[in-house]
Design a protein that fits this description.
heterodimer, A: 405 residues, mainly alpha, A middle domain of Talin 1, two-stranded antiparallel sheet, 15 helices, 2 strands, B: 450 residues, alpha+beta, two-stranded parallel ribbon, two-stranded antiparallel ribbon, 12 helices, globular
């Protein structure tokens, strides 16, 4: 080739290379596209998020309905078996619910102005406000027949004066099933006879129902409130409703929506899970300073919370009955490198969280157990740091991972 | 706070030093969480302390006996179930709105005439030194407060009208008998929690140097310290916290509030706040002795001392700068001192030797008859009030959704707060009242930038 043409050819080759491998270049060369993956648009990720949120609330609602059935059976036919079945149903209902805690912390349907979070899962509860406690056999609404037990009454009592007397939700039901945990190495042990009503019900005829009757009534009332609140959440996230939260969420500015999504998993990682639920318990060394203190089920809460965070990141949710919902996740919006780092961290967190040996209240009192909890806390904090980094990469500055009150 | 936690990537701090109201203990926070952030550079164990303290600040205390022994012992008589009920998001309380609403983030102190060198007041014999509107099951609450307001019309020098409202308090539903005929009432909204560790670190001699009780320099300002009792040191010291500076340290303020507001006993204050006539209160089960362990109490105190000060906003705005000039010219800065310096603080370099801009001298000043509550508190008379710090005041609306200022929240905005100033501040108020509208607005704008 004569020199001038060679140079021209060289420039042409260079130009081709730039077109091929430079920005926008991959569109021209399908073979190269495989090595440089198409990033998912934020809209696809947000859509998948909404799908997962809806599915997990549906699962929570369905398992709450199943819990309600088991509670009705207990109240109708109290026996050791129906009590055990009710307890199992409660534990099963905690599994999808725990995963939905990743959708808190951005004033969404669960914890916006009228959100039911406090009515569903607030802790600690005023045990003696609800029922008898050790040292006070006639404590609580249940033992005071003059206080009506209705949903509206309980709601009003729970919201009085901007301050809660926690008398509803998962932990109220838990207390009514297990009773106070007085043992060093087991959960609460409420007798099933707490629900046995005699044929001639009441202390004097029909006018004064017995505590056993009222306990059953209380249990069923709070169960109904639980299912109703969860149903509202399902509706808020349902597709094909142009008026609900989901519709607004998906039509809003995608960066804002991403901020919310990331706030949920960031705050749950650092503030709520690592902090409130684990670091504080370690610090107080109070055996019962754990969220599911009556049933000793706290380790499940922790694992499900961690799983919920994972679900959001991966865009993947395994439903109660085994169906897998899988689609674009946060990893698809960021660099391969950052995605790999986060995925490794999420794996590490799950491993550390799963290493916590149940029951939590004994784990937090032993040296090795405390070390395992501390490791999980560290992993969750590292995870939260990465969420902030990811937010920055997506153009979201100042992501706050503290707990909004 | 709400738990303002480890805000990574917090907003950029303003370039000028002036905007760093808390020196190194400043954070660039402007959201609803602005008052709940920890000071920078806490060590990892300190961060945990902050976090645990925050948990016990926010979570409700429950009735004893309870499975959660660390958190039980509420009441028997109380005003709120948690610190954050009143200090919502570590912010300021306000009067009920509308006036018939229950009083949540505000309380009424009680006393009868007399002086006590340890407690500062002589408690009302049946109801103690504070009205508790809530009680645990089986115990009667003490009473219910209603507030009525009288509108007072006024005029700026240019003819523009303004309105102020004067509150009157009545206590109904008294469950333990009639109040003493000479009872004194002092309504007090919850102050915000920012920068307390810094204020605590201002050396006593610096405050005393600002005092001028005899008005020797003839400028009309006669600030003086309130000398109060430190229960830990068992001696008299200068007070600096509370509306009448009746608490000397964050530790004592916190411990006292646990008992008086939530009914939680501690090693320092081991007796429940039940009076002699309140038998069911005295007989009620407690949450252990003491109800809050020394470790957890220490963490709440640590938390309260390490909340950061949010940086100023719009420091270089023209109106703000004009307002700053006027603030000095109208003599506001004589009591609302712009700049002070902290001394050393063990273990917390971020609080040590800081140049801060709290806009307070922490001293008592006679504010005139209009604001008097008629009730003395240690050395403070009814007419005297501590200069409240003005740092962060522009963010109250963002954090707490209101602009109610002064001890009872009677001022519905900053201008009304200024217009209520009397006594030693009468001259400054008159300056303000005579300012042309644009200048008044600039001064307010400056306050809002703090």
């Amino acid at each position: 080739m004569r020199p001038k043409r060679f140079k021209a050819t060289l420039w042409w080759v260079l130009w081709c290379a730039i077109i091929t491998f430079g920005p926008g270049g991959y569109a021209l060369v399908p073979a190269v596209r495989a090595a440089v993956p198409q990033p998912a648009p934020p809209a696809a990720v947000l859509h998948q998020y909404a799908t997962i949120v809806h599915a997990s609330y549906e699962d929570a609602y369905a398992s709450a309905m199943a819990l309600q059935v088991a509670l009705k059976a207990l109240v109708e036919t109290p026996s050791p078996d129906t009590l055990e079945a009710a307890k199992s149903a409660w534990k099963r209902a905690r599994i999808p619910y725990g995963q939905t805690e990743a959708y808190r912390f951005y004033a969404g349907p669960i914890d916006g102005d009228d959100g039911p979070e406090g009515m569903l899962n607030a802790w600690p509860i005023d045990e003696s406000y609800i029922d008898y406690v050790e040292g006070n056999a006639t404590a609580g609404i249940i033992n005071h027949p003059e206080v009506p037990i209705t949903a509206s009454q309980l709601r009003a009592l729970s919201e009085a004066g901007g301050e809660e007397n926690i008398s509803t939700g998962f932990h109220a039901i838990e207390f009514l099933l297990w009773g106070q945990d007085q043992s060093d190495d087991g959960p609460g042990a409420r007798p099933y006879t707490d629900y046995v009503t005699s044929p001639n019900a009441g202390r004097d005829g029909d006018r004064h129902p017995s505590p056993q009757q009222r306990r059953g009534q209380y249990l069923l009332t709070v169960a109904e409130m639980l299912t109703q609140d969860l149903k509202r959440l399902v509706e808020a996230w349902a597709p094909d409703n142009p008026q609900n939260y989901r519709a607004a969420f998906l039509s809003a500015n995608p960066t804002e929506a991403l901020r919310k999504l990331l706030s949920g998993i960031g705050v749950l990682s650092r503030g709520e899970l690592a902090g409130e639920r684990m670091a504080v318990a370690l610090s107080t060394r109070d055996q019962e300073d754990e969220h599911s203190c009556f049933s000793d089920n706290t380790h499940v809460d922790i694992r499900q919370n961690a799983q919920g965070i994972r679900n959001v990141y991966d865009g993947r949710y395994v439903r109660t009955h085994g169906t897998i919902i899988d689609g674009p996740g946060i990893g698809d919006l960021i660099s391969t490198e950052l995605n790999a780092t986060m995925t490794r961290q999420l794996d590490d967190t799950m491993e550390k969280v799963n290493a916590i040996s149940p029951p939590f209240d004994r784990e937090m009192l032993s040296e090795e157990g405390r070390k395992r909890i501390q490791d999980a806390i560290a992993a969750l904090r590292a995870q939260a740091d990465l969420v902030v980094t990811i937010a920055q990469a997506l153009g979201i500055a100042n992501l706050q991972v503290e707990i909004p009150e | 706070m709400t738990a303002g936690l480890f805000v990574l990537g917090a907003g950029a701090l303003p370039a000028t030093r002036k905007g760093l109201s808390g020196g190194e203990a400043t954070v660039g926070a402007t959201s609803r969480q602005a008052f709940g952030q920890p000071i920078p550079c806490l060590s990892s164990p300190q961060q945990t302390q902050f976090f645990v303290g925050n948990s016990f600040f926010n979570r409700n205390w429950v009735v004893a006996p309870s499975s959660t022994q660390a958190r039980d012992g509420l009441g028997p008589l109380f005003n709120a179930r948690s610190c954050s009920t009143c200090h919502r998001l570590d912010g300021r309380g306000r009067p009920p709105d509308p006036p018939g609403e229950p009083m949540v983030s505000m309380l009424l102190r009680l006393s009868i005439p007399g002086h006590d060198p340890r407690t500062g007041v002589v408690p009302e014999p049946r109801y103690g030194d504070q009205l508790n509107g809530l009680a645990i099951p089986g115990v009667e609450p003490e009473g219910r407060v209603t507030i009525t307001y009288e509108e007072i019309a006024g005029q700026f020098a240019g003819g523009e009208p303004y309105h102020l409202r004067r509150p009157t308090y009545t206590i109904g539903d008294l469950r333990y008998g009639p109040l003493h005929p000479e009872v004194g009432l002092s309504p007090r909204t919850a102050p915000f929690m920012i920068g307390l560790g810094l204020l605590e670190a201002i050396p006593e001699r610096a405050l005393l140097a600002l005092a001028d009780p005899e008005d020797r320099d003839g400028d009309g300002i006669s600030g003086r310290p309130n000398r109060v009792w430190d229960w830990t040191q068992q001696r008299q010291v200068v007070g600096r916290f509370g509306w009448k500076a009746n608490q000397p340290t964050v530790a004592q303020q916190t411990t006292g509030a646990f008992l008086g507001d939530i009914g939680i006993t501690s090693a320092l204050f081991p007796r429940e706040n039940c009076t002699a006539v309140q038998a069911s209160c005295t007989a009620a089960p407690t949450g252990g002795q003491p109800e809050i362990s020394p470790e957890l109490l220490a963490q709440v105190i640590f938390y309260s001392r390490t909340l950061a000060v949010p940086a100023r906003r719009d420091v270089d705005h023209v109106a703000v700068q004009r307002g700053e000039e006027l603030f000095a010219q109208t003599q506001c800065g004589k009591c609302h001192i712009p700049t002070l310096r902290t001394g050393p603080v063990d273990g917390l370099p971020t609080l040590s030797h800081q140049t801060i801009h709290p806009y307070t001298d922490l001293l008592l000043h006679d504010m005139g008859a209009g604001l008097s509550d008629g009730r003395s508190d240690f050395d403070a008379t009814g007419r005297e009030w501590r200069t409240p710090p003005l740092w962060g005041i522009g963010l109250v609306v963002k954090v707490n959704g209101h602009t109610n200022f002064l001890h009872d929240g009677r001022a519905r905005n900053l201008a009304e707060a200024v217009l209520w100033h009397g006594g030693e501040a009468e001259t400054a108020r008159e300056h303000f009242r005579h300012l042309p509208r644009p200048d008044r607005d600039a001064l307010i704008r400056f306050l809002e930038s703090l």
